[in-house]
Design brief:
- It is a single chain.
- This protein is mainly alpha-helical.
- The protein has helices at 8-19, 25-37, 41-54, 58-70, 74-88, 95-107, 111-124, 131-144, 147-168, 173-186, 189-200, 210-216.
- It starts with 7 loop residues before the first helix and ends in a 12-residue tail after the last helix.
């Protein structure tokens, strides 16, 4: 009503009192949109800063960053993404935030920044937490990566597939050996040893030890028998 009467200051006071009650998201959006109608970018920015703390979802932080980007504040958008990463920390990381951040950097022609964001998130998140992140990273490397970068994506994709199969059935020895062959070709020795030990720990529940022997035999490659 105050705004309809062209009393913008009065409308602002009403909104401010309303926001003290920390209302639903739509109310904050209405306040932001009112300020934008009057080209009050700084005021809208300040409201966004409060909004993301009252309703702290990844979606809302990304909205804040896109607001900054839309109004030509690239540095401000980057700062919002960085604040969001700090806000959620490692305990509450979500792949959507890093996808948004990386795509923002890609849009700014900052491919190395985007790559660093993807790799950081892939290192910190579990495989189950980031299927869409991995897909986005794969597309990114196909667009901007060199041959080795693309090979790494393919290898990681295969590793993700084998690890998923093993998680679903720890006695799937075909998946274990596919994973081991992959790691022997491209992984570190410690990684290979760790994977062999994980495979050996899964003793079959059946009387036949055919699969069990299949897992044990290649360990000699890592621990050669000393002959006298």
């Amino acid at each position: 009503m105050e705004e309809m009467l062209e009393n913008v200051a009065g409308a602002r006071q009403v909104f401010e009192r309303w926001m003290e009650w920390e209302p639903e998201e739509q109310s904050w959006s209405s306040y932001i949109n009112m300020e934008l109608r009057y080209k009050e970018i700084d005021r809208a920015r300040n409201i966004y800063g409060k909004f993301v703390l009252v309703h702290p979802t990844v979606k809302n932080w990304i909205r804040f960053a896109k607001f900054e980007e839309k109004h030509g504040n690239v540095g401000g958008a980057r700062e919002v993404y960085e604040r969001a990463v700090d806000f959620f920390g490692e305990e509450y990381m979500e792949e959507g935030l890093f996808i948004g951040f990386a795509k923002f950097e890609e849009g700014q022609k900052e491919s190395e920044r985007a790559r660093a964001i993807y790799k950081y998130a892939l290192e910190k998140l579990t495989k189950e937490q980031c299927p869409d992140l991995f897909k986005s990273y794969s597309i990114f490397e196909k667009k901007f990566g060199d041959r080795r970068g693309i090979e790494d994506v393919i290898i990681n994709k295969r590793r993700f597939k084998y690890e998923t199969e093993i998680k679903q059935n720890p006695l799937n020895y075909d998946a274990w050996f596919d994973l081991l062959r992959l790691l022997e070709a491209d992984g570190s020795l410690d990684d290979v040893r760790d994977t062999y030990e994980r495979a050996i720990a899964n003793i079959p529940l059946v009387a036949s030890k055919k699969g069990w022997r299949k897992v044990h035999l290649p360990v000699d490659k890592l621990h050669p028998v000393r002959r006298t």
